[in-house]
């Protein structure tokens, strides 16, 4: 899930 | 959402508003690279495809729509506005975008975290954003008498990227599973491209002179 974390960034 | 991330996003937003203000107030896009603006529109378009597939937050959705809308309206003004389009320095804006688009596309195909179309396009947008400022920096070097709004626009863009690095450090320290090497390396490279500009920006500011890049 950590890998996906930056997908909440713009 | 931490303070660095919020400050970064707001700085990014303000940079775009400064550019729109310049275009509206002076009816001119002199010194602005259409190539960089095209690349940013491409970046937003490919990165925000998840608008249709995943809901993160109202803030996230609104900001994505604002970035998409403003980037396309800037391009509209530069290409089609009766007055503004005549002020575009086409002869000076000679950077060949293809030389960064193709390598970024190849890199996204080779180095990504998931073999899916959406993920590869997202990764492409990360690589492309890192270098999308290059045509703008080249154009600035060729522009005599860079006006205040243009200088501040590029300064705010660089600041936005720097603040994102602080956000990543903060998240790395506070969120146990937060690891994103592709984003971090691209972001550090992107911020690095501004170092030279920042140097001359502060020099001009300290000496109370007009900004110009050697």
Polypeptide structure, described:
With 10 residues, chain A is mostly loops. Chain A contains no helices and no strands. Chain A is rod-shaped, with a radius of gyration of 6 Å. The N and C termini of chain A lie far apart (18 Å). Chain B has 214 residues and is mostly helical. Chain B has helices at 3-26, 34-47, 58-80, 98-110, 117-131, 134-142, 148-174, 181-192, 195-206. Chain A binds chain B through residues 1-3, 5-10, and chain B through 5, 9, 12, 50, 54, 56-57, 60, 63-64, 67, 113, 122, 164, 167, 171, 175-180, 183.
What features would you highlight for this structure?
heterodimer; A: 10 residues; little secondary structure; B: 214 residues; mainly alpha; 9 helices
Task: Report the count of strand segments of chain B.
Answer: 0
Shape of chain B: globular
DSSP helical segment count of chain B: 9
Q: Low-confidence stretches of chain A at least 5 residues in length (pLDDT < 50)?
A: none
Described by strand count, sense and barrel closure, the largest sheet of chain B is: none
Backbone shape of chain A: rod-shaped
Percent in helix of chain B: 55-70%
Largest interface: A-B, 9 and 23 residues
Query: What is the multimeric organization of the chains shown?
Result: heterodimer
How do the SSEs of chain B run, as a string of H and E? Answer: HHHHHHHHH
Tell me the strand percentage band of chain A. under 5%
Radius of gyration of chain A equals: 6 Å
Please count the beta strands of chain A (DSSP E, at least 2 residues each).
0
Give the termini separation of chain A: 18 Å
* Helix-strand makeup class of chain B: mainly alpha
**First-last Cα distance of chain B:** 39 Å
**Mean pLDDT of chain A, rounded to whole units?**
71
User: Uncertain spans of chain B, ≥5 residues at pLDDT below 50?
Assistant: none
Sheet/helix structural class of chain A: little secondary structure
Helix content of chain A: under 10%
Number of helices of chain A: 0
